């Protein structure tokens, strides 16, 4: 694969905000897919349910070392305090960092339903046994019996999830190693959830949305302001900002898109 070259055009921009925007952009592409037409069905690198995403089995992506690039993107974004890749399957983390595989990690719903027949202790019908045995034989595994039922369940999940993604995971590991964060991940297991958080932990609640909205319209140096006491900020539905002075509460409308408009209304309230 050729080296990716980037050319930035437009207004000059410097500072941490530019770095955050860059890594937010590339990580969103990694999560949602790249806009390329050479791969049939799109270019999603990870597919499946949230918190059970596994690498795509596309041979073209694999042969192009796309997952090495993905590992580099994840590592560099982590090092520069950018977004992380959320929702990765515990099965993939099992290969990388010894996590646990679950039935939901199987993307193929037909195979998943067949494997689920082995759960529990209920007696299997002839039709159910035929479905299980057909799948087991296709992967060179023995026929189901009363004694090997649980063992076969684990083996079928392992093969269904990891059988076609082991090379992708190896590429992902290689990309992470190239960013030099691998020793940290292997020696400090508590950093793994920071690099690969669960999607459910990244959900944007209304409170988080309001906080993001407020911080986007405030000037860059607003964090340095010292007002001498705590000030509660609430996002409300109104035309202009207002305040409850006795309660140290600032009420900001949620319709602002640009700081200049927000500044104009604030100054108008102060009589400027």
UniProtKB/TrEMBL annotation:
InterPro entries: Hect_E3_ubiquitin_ligase (IPR035983)
Sample GO molecular function, one term: ubiquitin-protein transferase activity
Origin superkingdom: Eukaryota
Name the record gives this protein: HECT domain-containing protein
């Amino acid at each position: 694969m050729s080296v990716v070259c980037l050319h930035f055009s437009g207004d000059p921009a410097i500072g941490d905000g530019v770095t955050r925007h860059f890594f937010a952009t590339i990580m969103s592409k990694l999560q949602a897919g790249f806009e390329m037409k050479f791969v049939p069905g799109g270019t999603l690198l990870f597919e499946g349910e949230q918190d059970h995403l596994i690498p795509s089995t596309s041979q073209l992506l694999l042969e192009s070392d796309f997952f090495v690039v993905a590992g580099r993107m994840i590592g560099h974004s982590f090092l520069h305090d950018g977004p992380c890749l959320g929702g990765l399957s515990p099965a993939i983390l099992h290969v990388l960092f010894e996590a646990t595989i679950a039935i939901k990690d199987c993307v193929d719903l037909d195979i998943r339903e067949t494997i689920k027949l082995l759960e529990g202790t209920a007696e299997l019908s002839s039709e159910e046994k035929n479905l299980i045995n057909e799948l087991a034989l296709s992967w060179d595994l023995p026929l189901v019996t009363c004694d090997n039922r649980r063992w076969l369940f684990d083996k079928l999940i392992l093969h269904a999830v990891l059988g076609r993604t082991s090379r992708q995971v190896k590429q992902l590991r290689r990309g992470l190693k190239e960013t030099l964060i691998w020793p940290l991940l292997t020696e400090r297991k508590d950093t793994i959830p920071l690099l690969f958080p669960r999607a459910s932990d990244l959900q944007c609640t209304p409170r988080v949305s309001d906080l993001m909205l407020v911080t986007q319209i405030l000037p860059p140096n607003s964090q340095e302001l010292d007002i001498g006491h705590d000030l509660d900020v609430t996002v409300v539905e109104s035309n202009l900002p207002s305040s409850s002075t006795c309660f140290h509460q600032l009420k900001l409308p949620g319709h602002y898109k640009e700081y200049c408009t927000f500044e104009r209304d604030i100054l108008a309230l102060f009589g400027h």
